[in-house]
Amino acid sequence: MIRARGLVKRFGQFTAVDGIDFELYRGEAFGFLGPNGAGKSSTMRMIGCVSPPSGGELSILGLDPVADGPVIRARLGVVPQEDTLDLELTVRENLLVYGRYFGLSREVIRERTAHLLDFVQLSDRAEDQVEPLSGGMKRRLTIARSLINEPEILLLDEPTTGLDPQARHAVWDRLFRLKQQGVTLILTTHYMDEAEQLCDRLVVMDRGKIAAEGSPPELIERYSTPEVLELRFEPDRHQVAADKLASVPAKRREVLADRILLYVTDGDATLAAVRALGLEPLTSLVRRSTLEDVFLRLTGRRLED
Amino acid sequence: MAAGEFTRPALTGAVFAVRELRFWLTDYRRTWRGSIYSSLLNPLLFLGAMGLGLGSLINARGDTAIGGVSYLTFLAPGLLAATAMTTAVGESTYPVLASVKWVKTYQAATASPLRPADIFHGHMLFVALRLTMNCAIFLAVSAILGAVQSPPWGALASLPVAVLTGITFNAVIEAWAITRARDTSFAVIFRFGMIPLFLFSGTFFPITQLPAWLRPIAYLTPLWHGVALCRSLSLGTATLGGALIHVGYLAGLAAIGVAAGNRTYRRRLYV
C-alpha cells in the first residue's frame, strides 16, 4: 500500500530522514520505533501528504503524495502527535466539522458519529465541550475523528505519549480492535511495550536511518538473547563489579549509568555464577529481552532518554 | 471505502473552500451574538460622538470643504470603509494565529483533502461574510441616525465597495499573519498601521486638508480608495473613471494578497 525508496526529508542543513526504504501491506500494523528526533514524525508527515519529500520515492496507494494529496488524504485517517481538536466545540461538533472536510453529508456523519463515539466509549460525552475532557478522552476522540471517513490506512503519531497507564491501555485496546477489523495501522512510538503490543512488523529508526526491520519476536531473536540479567550495585562498587563481571560468560554486557545488563540464555544460572564470584548485587532481575534491548544493541543508546 | 464520496473531477478549489467556510460558520455559531452587539455599538458610538456631536460644531462653520453636506452625511460613508478595514484586520490576525498555532484547527484541516490554499480561501469567504454583515449593520445604523441621503441607492452601492476594501486588507494581512511565529507584531500593525490609516485616509476630513507632501502617501493607501469611492457613491458625486481606478486598485491589491497567501499558507502548513 505504501512504498518508500531512499526517502529523504531535509530542513535546511538538517537531515531528518536520511534515505529510508520500507514497504507496507494491507491489513498489517506497522511501526516506526525510535527515540525523539529519530525522524519518525517527519516520515509520518510525508505519508500524510502534508510534507513534500526532499528526495527519494514515495508512493501511497499507488499515488504520488505531492500531486495527488487530496485523493490520498481522502483515504487516510490521521491521529497527529498533538491533538488538533477544536476545544470550544462539543464532541459531536468536532466530528461534524471534520466529516465535512471530507465532503460527507450530515446524515452520514450523524450515523458514523453514533457508532464511532460508541467505539471510543464517549457516547455519554457527545454534547459536552471538548476543553474539559481528560487527555485520554481527547486522544480517543481524535481517534474517532480520524475514522470518520472510514480510512483504509490509519496514521498514528505517538498515539499514547503523555497518557497515564490506564488511558494508554484504553487506547491500545481500541487500536487492537481496529487492527482486528482489518484497518491498516501505521504508528510511531518511542515506547517499546507499545510497539510489541500493536505492531506486526516494525522498523527501528535512529538519526534518520532505519537500523533494523522485522517483527518484534524476530528482532529480539536476531539482536538479543532470550533473557537479560539486570544487576544494580551501590554506586561506589558499580565500576569494580562491572570489571569483575567480565569473567562471567555472557553473550553481551551493557554497563549503563545505573545498571549492568548481561545478555544470556539462562538468567538464573548467570545470577548464580555472579554470586559464586562473591558479588552480591543490591537488586537483581531476570527478564525476557525486549525491543528496548534491541534498540540498545543497535544504537548504543536507550529509547526513552 | 470512503473514496466513494469523491469523484475526482469534482475536487475543485471552490468546493474545498466552502468546506472550510462551513467550519468557520460552525465555530461562529458560538460567538455571533456578542459580535452583533459590537457591530451595532461601534457605528452608534462613532456616528453619535463624531458625526452628531463634533459635527454640530463643524456644521456651524460652513460645509464647503466637505462638499455641501452635513458632517454626519460626510463622515458616515468614510467610516463605513474604515469599519470594513478594522473588521478585516481583526479577523485576519489573531484568528489566523489561533488556527495555526494555538488550537491548530488548520492542521486538522490539512489531514483532510483540503489544501493550504483551500483553507486560506475558505477563511477569506468567512471574513467576506462577516464584512457584509458588519457593513450592512453599519449602513442600517447610519440610515436610522439620518446619515443616508435619499434615495438610498448610492449608499447601497457603497456596501460592496466597503466589503471589497475589507477583502483587500484581509487578503494582504492574512497572507502575512500566517508567517508569524508570535502575536507581538499584531499590536504593531494595529498601532502603527491601522490607526494612522483610520485617522489620515480621509475618513474624518478630506485629505485636501493634509499638508501637500502628505497627500501622495494618502492616495497610495487602500483605505483612502475605499473611503473615496464609498463617499462619492453615497453623495452622488462618483464618476465612472474614478470608480474604476478605485476598484481596480483595491482588487489588484487583493489579488496580490491572495497570490502571496497561497504561497505563505503552503509554506506554513506543508513543512
* Overall strand count of chain A: 13
Total number of strands of chain B: 0
Amount of helix of chain A: 25-40%
Instruction: Give the percentage of residues in beta strands of chain A.
Output: 25-35%
Number of helices of chain B: 11
CATH architectural group of the largest domain in chain A: 3-Layer(aba) Sandwich
Secondary structure tally, helices of chain A: 11
Helix amount of chain B, in percent?
over 70%
Write down the overall mean pLDDT of chain B.
92
Rg of chain B, Å, rounded = 20 Å
Low-confidence stretches of chain A: none
- Biggest β-sheet of chain A: count, sense, barrel? 6 strands, mixed
Secondary-structure element string of chain A:
EEEHEHEHHHEHEHEEHEHEEHEH
CATH class of the largest domain in chain A: Alpha Beta
What would you say about this model in short?
The complex is a heterodimer of chains A (305) and B (271). With 305 residues, chain A is of the alpha/beta class.
What does this structure look like?
In chain A, 35% of the residues lie in helices and 26% in strands. Chain A has 305 residues and is of the alpha/beta class. Chain A has 3 domains: 1-75 and 152-213, P-loop containing nucleotide triphosphate hydrolases (Rossmann fold, 3-Layer(aba) Sandwich), CATH 3.40.50.300; 86-145, no CATH class; 225-288, Alpha-Beta Plaits. Chain B is built from 11 helices and no strands. Chains A and B meet through α2 and α3 of A and α1 and α5 of B.
Give the topology.
The complex is a heterodimer of chains A (305) and B (271).
Chain A: E1 2-11, E2 14-24, E3 29-33, H1 40-47, E4 55-60, H2 69-73, E5 76-79, H3 91-101, H4 106-119, H5 135-146, E6 153-157, H6 165-180, E7 184-189, H7 192-198, E8 201-206, E9 209-214, H8 216-223, E10 227-232, H9 238-244, E11 252-255, E12 260-264, H10 267-276, E13 283-288, H11 291-299
Parallel strand pairs in A: 3-7, 3-8, 5-6, 6-7
Antiparallel strand pairs in A: 1-2, 1-4, 8-9, 10-12, 10-13, 11-12
Chain B: H1 13-28, H2 32-60, H3 71-92, H4 94-102, H5 105-110, H6 116-144, H7 153-177, H8 184-200, H9 215-220, H10 222-235, H11 240-269
